[in-house]
Protein 1
Amino acid sequence: MDSHEHIFSLLFLSLILLFTGADASGQHLNFRPTKLFVFGDSYVDTGNHGRQVSFSWKDPYGITFPGKPSGRFSDGRVLTDFIAKYLGVKSPVPYKLRRSMAQHLKYGMNFAYGGTGVFDTSTPAPNMTNQIDLFQQLIKDKAYTAADLSYSVALVSVAGNDYSHYINQNGSAEGFPSFIASVVNEMASNLKRIHELGVKKLAVSGLQPLGCLPANTAPSTFRRCNDSSNVLVAFHNSLLTQAVSKLNQQTKDQSTFVLLDLYNSFMSVLAHPSTHNIQNQFQPCCVGVSSGYSCGDVDDNNFKKYNVCDDPKSAFFWDLAHPTQAGWHAVYNKLQTTNVLQQLVVQN
Ligand SMILES: *[C@@H]1O[C@H](CO)[C@@H](O)[C@H](O)[C@H]1NC(C)=O
Ligand SMILES: *[C@@H]1O[C@H](CO)[C@@H](O)[C@H](O)[C@H]1NC(C)=O
Ligand SMILES: *[C@@H]1O[C@H](CO)[C@@H](O)[C@H](O)[C@H]1NC(C)=O
């Protein structure tokens, strides 16, 4: 065979390999997502609330990144930004900014609103059902094609606000387990619906240890986690684990729905903070000057009513409920050690 023929047959062979999805070693090619769609609450919201309504748009939120408030509930990057980086896509544009940043639609979209739950909470913003409705409408409007969606990943973080809302509404202790079951059932139908809209892979976060959030460790001056809260979280997470494996059985693929274990990632960082260059694992970096004031509050004369720690990079928690960028980075590193993120880039 002359050299032209040789090159031609090599080309032909590589084309065959490309279309059968196998490389020379016979392994499946990696799944390379090009879009990320995000649903849920403040752990993944990157700026959907209006500037007038949310403290996430007030100083000193965003002081580490991007250097001013960006609508993120942290001093800097949040879980979404780290997952996007892992997938090799830009952090997707918040739904609210879809018109002004239309050139960014190709990276996906973020529908998450801080304070929301699978059910309605006291935050007047779209619950999970409504967020998925917004996504569905965009698909109807042809903002995303079926082919786009087949190269997409969804990230879902939700449920914490359902539980704080339940407690604020004086929900009974006896009723809590059945409420948790209804939250997880609703989450499972939300996840199924996102998948049925054409999203290829879904990462859903397990619930963080709510009992260790500064809001709940404040009674012990930020020293001890509230174990009874964490017991409820563990129940939620065990039901969610079952729900996710059932969804995977139904889709006959073990890597469609992937559970991100925030509980153990948080706990591991909180137990070994120095491994992650964190000094203050329970004390939040930004706090109100007295009870009645929160991070970001000012008085009528615009005087700050909060204090910020000297080094946000050495604190795990930013405010009473949210990690710092350093905290999220540590959690993300922990998630990476468990191989779970790899499931998001494995071909089904
Ligand atoms: C979500 O919000 C809509 C509109 O507020 C409401 O009608 C619906 O019942 C909510 N869904 C759930 C599951 O709570
Ligand atoms: C919950 O109970 C507290 C104290 O008994 C009461 O002040 C508050 O109004 C109640 N809240 C709701 C939503 O029922
Ligand atoms: C722990 O949280 C529960 C609610 O889950 C609350 O009833 C209890 O008072 C808290 N315990 C402490 C010590 O703060």
Note: The longest helix spans residues 227-251.
Protein 2
Amino acid sequence: MRFVYQSALAVAYLCVAAAAAICNGKIKPKVMIITFFNSEGEIYLTKSNTTGALDFRAKQHRVPYASPEFPYLHCTADADACLMTTGEAEIQATATTMALLADPALDLRETYWVLTGIGGGAPDQVTLGAVTLARFTVQVGMSYEMDAREAPPAFNTGYVPQGTESPGAVWGSVYNSEVFEVNGALRDTLTAMVDPARVADSAAAAAYRANYAEVPAFAPGAAPPAVHHCDSVTSDTWFTGAMLAETHKRRVDLWTNGTGTYCTTAQEDGAVLGALVRGALESRVDFERVAIVRTVSDFDRPYPGQSVMDNLINGTVGYPIAIENVWVAGESIARGIIGAWNETFKSGVPAQNYVGDVWGVLGGAPDFGPGRVSGGEPVVLPGAKAQQQMVKSAKHRTRRSRFQK
Ligand SMILES: *[C@@H]1O[C@H](CO)[C@@H](O)[C@H](O)[C@H]1NC(C)=O
Ligand SMILES: *[C@@H]1O[C@H](CO)[C@@H](O)[C@H](O)[C@H]1NC(C)=O
Ligand SMILES: *[C@@H]1O[C@H](CO)[C@@H](O)[C@H](O)[C@H]1NC(C)=O
Ligand SMILES: *[C@@H]1O[C@H](CO)[C@@H](O)[C@H](O)[C@H]1NC(C)=O
């Protein structure tokens, strides 16, 4: 059972002695590690005693409205790095991120948000244990869905973009959570902090991935784990099998205007980013300071001759190394950001690409989607603080992308 009542009761909503600094002033993390369920968060705590590693056990702070399963923010003694676990899937991920944004004890204006979790992997891009850093996350579950057995004969899937009449249509009705794009320059800088030699592998993973070797397109799936640039999908439904994987890969292509690369499946990334866009509109966070890291615990489809159920049930041999690599990647990135704070990260890594949502509410010109709502300027909400810096960088991005075309 993952639900631990005792820890909540034992520490209650009180400042423990060790957390005095946290109670008396704002917690102002340079890095906020976001994880989604118990094992992803606990690896940071159990590895905290590793020589040279960030110790996330030093302080804890109870976040109002956080998941009852994960009520605490865990931080290093100086609170430079903090760790939160949201609870799984979209509702919990959004609710916990909003809880962080709403917590008056936190100053998040300069914080880097590093999402680190495990996910399924596409064998034409990645293998078990792989570390991926994304530029896009695509909410593939946002769809009309009919059971494929009842779909028109011409349809190759039961998923159809909402507001359209064909699986191959691009945009119909837009809810504005379908796609989020994050800072590519930041991603590149953070990638350099992850030492490929430290990416964990295992004999069990090696034996399992060898089954993919006979398909030439799955060569990346049969190779040892590495560090990759490719994109995540967000869906509450844990889908599996080649047909749904191909359907969602096509959706990533369509919704990122051909610039995204489908490689990992998970249930939260877009949900966190949707809340962070709102935080940016209120000047609570800087949306240029967001990174999406996913490590691969299992394949999104079976190997030749294997059943979908066999891969789903028996294919999680990559789970231990994926959890280990969540920490390998996330802790390295956190240390890297803190270590180069003054010279690089305090002032920010300017985005060269569009960052934000489908509608462009943070300003700039989306390089995907049906068009921005605000003419390249950020939306200014009634009564919200003017966002001088964001307006400036949004203009910069708009100008850049016009020159690039
Ligand atoms: C670190 O903690 C883990 C679990 O709490 C323990 O098994 C391990 O021996 C500890 N390692 C060191 C170096 O203290
Ligand atoms: C999982 O593997 C075991 C052992 O090989 C096998 O008996 C079982 O049928 C597999 N499960 C599925 C759903 O294929
Ligand atoms: C970074 O800048 C702060 C404020 O100027 C200073 O106190 C601190 O010592 C600097 N840190 C490093 C590692 O240079
Ligand atoms: C999508 O890509 C096409 C072809 O490269 C390009 O003409 C179009 O402007 C792009 N759309 C957006 C919104 O950038």
Note: The chain has two domains: 5-142+177-352, 358-405.
Protein 3
Amino acid sequence: MINLTQVLFEQRGQPRGDEHNAHIADLYNCDRATWYRRNGYSPEPFTPEKLAQFAIGHGYEMEVGATLIDAGYNVRTGVEVEYLDMIGHPDIVIGDELLIECKTTEAVNPKDSVSLHHAVQAAAYALALGIEDCAVLVKHARSHVEAVYSFKAEGYRELIEQRAAEVATRTKPGAPIPPAVPNPISPWLCRYCDFRMCPTNPKHEQQVDF
Ligand code: SF4
């Protein structure tokens, strides 16, 4: 009998092999956490629950892409981008006209406007591809509300360029370790941070050395 739990856990937990690069998602990450990753420090391993949560998000992205293909759109998936010395993998690109990011959340009610960290990520992908229009889809798992936020990438260019320069300087391998200060774009990340060696991490006392 195949041990499905074991197979899924091991497969989902494979490292991507690009840990030393700066990622577009690092624009809203804490620079200290990015520094740890880029400088070879090991985070707390993902739990099976966290990996299953990622799989739900990936499943939503696949379903949206397949639905748009069925609706006749020119859907591009698996696109890789390089932009301002960062790499990234946007969820869905419709031809040369629309960049779509798909998110899932445990929240019940949608926000009035797009979350800044989602917008920055989508806009950076769009700017990398020369696409003007972005959409962030947020599926609310508990209420099944699917919110769509549409915006122009250009409005985030200045912030993205500023953050890209900071990420490049502060987090590159060999750079001095940045202060343990959360990113103002996403200050809640400490609660979910897997780098317990950071003194700001609420689970710092539970750190295990690998
Ligand atoms: S605990 Fe907070 S400040 Fe420390 S690395 Fe993680 S996200 Fe950054």
Note: The pocket of iron/sulfur cluster is lined by residues 30, 32-33, 180-182, 189-190, 193, 195, 198, 200-201 (CB under 6 Å).
